Amino acid sequence: MHQDTLGFSMRELRLYLGLSQAELSDGICTQALISQIENNDVSPSAELLYQFALRLGVDINYFFHMRETPRLDYVNEVIRQVRRHIKRREYSEVEEILDAEESNPLFRPVKNQQFYLWHKGICMYYLHKEADTALQLLDAALHYTTTTSKNYSEREIEILISMAILYSEEENWDRALPLFHKALYHVRFFPIIKDETIEIRLYYNYAKALSTCRNYEKALSIAREGFLLCRDKQRLYLFGELSYQCGKLNYLLNNQELASEYLTTASTIFQLDQNEPFKRHVDDYAKKIGMLPRKA
């Protein structure tokens, strides 16, 4: 049985839910017709397919592997939980969720499988230290959808950033920096980025990589873009970290007054965010370079 057929999709989901053919057909059609559909001998009418979808608890598009996500409520909740754990660096929790959903047919459509591979790769790196396998999974996830090298979706931009970060962790700057640059290009030319944290995360990590490679001027330019985005959009996400980056980079470039201003801003943001460890780190750095943070 071909795995890309309507009949296969229906059979796979029915078995996953523990339904017999008789239970699925009850009040809708004959059991024999279910068998014929699953064997791809006949095609159901639109009305029959709609009734099957209702009984199986999915959107009718599930059977055609359309891009619209089946069971949006359930799948979106799984995605939300995974992303929340990722931001907290709780990779064990992410892996536990992914393992639980591995055989779930709801995660077989292209977009959901891409999400699964993407986060499986992240877990392989941070939990199991398998860099090659992790990057192979991310690359597979990146090429799972149908956009081209000239046109990346928001999801694909996120995967590019993840790949760049992993290469940075491995200190493979020849791979990391071009990926950051490619992601930045697509962020700037993508019509609408719905999630502003994607862009902010890119600026922060790209500036961090450039700074490590001692390209301080470019790093400052990128970090400042991120700082301005946070300020203009009133987003606290990485605002303190980007302020600290700008302060440190200005100091390295001998812009003492600007360095003091950014470090003071970073200290204030972390104080408002009740992030005492980060505030202490900023204040300690300011003292170390002889630049006590100003009082607000």
Q: Given the helix and strand composition, which structural class is it? A: mainly alpha
Could you list the spans in which at least 5 consecutive residues all have pLDDT below 50?
Answer: 66-70
What integer value in Å does the Rg equal?
24 Å
Oligomer: single chain
Q: What is the CATH homology-level superfamily of the domain at 6-64? A: lambda repressor-like DNA-binding domains
Average pLDDT, rounded to a whole number, is: 89
The CATH topology annotation of the domain at 6-64 reads as: 434 Repressor (Amino-terminal Domain)
**What does the main sheet amount to?**
none
Total beta-strand segments: 0
Number of helices: 15
Estimated helix fraction:
55-70%
Which CATH class of the domain at 6-64 applies here?
Mainly Alpha
- The H/E string reads HHHHHHHHHHHHHHH
Mind telling me which CATH architecture of the domain at 6-64 this is? Answer: Orthogonal Bundle
Beta content comes to under 5%
Report the principal-axis shape: elongated
Gap between N and C termini: 69 Å
Pfam family, one: RNPP_C
Protein name: HTH cro/C1-type domain-containing protein
Domain HTH cro/C1-type: 10-63
Organism: Guptibacillus hwajinpoensis
Structure description:
The protein has 15 helices and no strands. The chain is mostly helical and 296 residues long. Among the domains are: 6-64, Orthogonal Bundle (434 Repressor (Amino-terminal Domain)); 71-128, no CATH class. Helix 5 runs antiparallel to helix 6, helix 8 runs antiparallel to helix 9 (154-169) and helix 10 (173-189) runs antiparallel to helix 11. It is elongated. The termini are far apart.
